[in-house]
Amino acid sequence: MSYRGHNFNNNNNNHHHPQAINRSSSTLDVINSFIPSSNPIIKKFESFTDKFDNIFDNLSLINSLKPFIPTIGRFLIVATFIEDSFRIMSQWREQVYYLSTFRHLYEWIVKIFLILNIIGMLAGSTLIILRKLPIPSSITLSSIVLLQGLLYGLFFDAPFLLRNISVIGGLLLALSDSLIIDKRSLSMPGLPMIESNDYNKKYFLLIGRIMLIVLFITFTITLNFTFLNLLLILIGFLSCFSIVIGYKTKFFASILILLLTIHNCLTNHYWSYSYKDSRRDYLRYEFFQTLSIVGGLLLIANTGAGELSIDEKKKKF
Q1: Is 9 within the bounds of a domain?
Q2: How far apart are the first and last CA of the chain?
Q3: Which domain range does residue 67 map to?
Q4: Model confidence over 237-274: pLDDT tens digits?
Q5: What is the spatial distance between Cα 22 and Cα 76, in angstroms, rounded to a whole number?
Q6: Which of 132, 191, 198, 272 has a CA between 20 and 30 Å from the CA of residue 314?
Q7: Rg of the chain taking only CA atoms, in angstroms
Q8: Cα–Cα distance measured from residue 302 to residue 70, given in angstroms and rounded to the nearest whole number
């Protein structure tokens, strides 16, 4: 986000929107028709993913962590904002110098901007984690992303733009997570659901899913085209597409979580560089931004894709 050294280049409401619902449903129906459960190959694959979900859900470690997964996911989503706020404080002089000298801003404006950034990111992140005031805090953090891109001159930088679209997608997922109630309160344990009287929640989930997987486009741009990387790209794109349409969401989200976590630790290992090395700062930025995407995927794996998904369509038939 900010400067990082000289090398950092509802059923009650549904009658108000019948056309939108019909368009979304018809699109999903068309896609669903290409995934017939009666097909032997599809049937075997769905049976395999169902077994995977059952085994995964019954792991003792997962069961013990399950109550905390939404909080962990929301924490990871805002991790990049927390890291950014602490880095601004630790590099205050460099930030002020860069914006006032190279971006030609008045120093007092720069200082006010940075102070508001720190307060906004820490307050917004804390509220997201605690599920308090989700809409104002999500708007605050999204606005900070856009303002930083504008003031630091990175708004039209493709990698920056794609990564931050994914981060905002994660914020939308965190927002939808805050609007989700658990079926355990309705004596249906372990099955998260979306409150039927709020029309907008399913669209937050859909838009969040689409924006979140934009990260993988950035991820593939940086890869050399070896056979192993090509295999990784194909698996990744298949997983991304499945998450967007909401097909076997938990399975494919788990695959992306694994791929991104391994890639993040192997590529963005900022801790192996000295504090004076400029690469450390940039890699730390990359590391925490990827963590935000992993957090969004964690929420998807935990809550499912929502009503606008192939998974939900298949449950009805």
Answers
A1: no
A2: 45
A3: 14-316
A4: 888 888 888 888 888 888 889 888 988 898 889 999 99
A5: 35
A6: 198
A7: 21
A8: 7
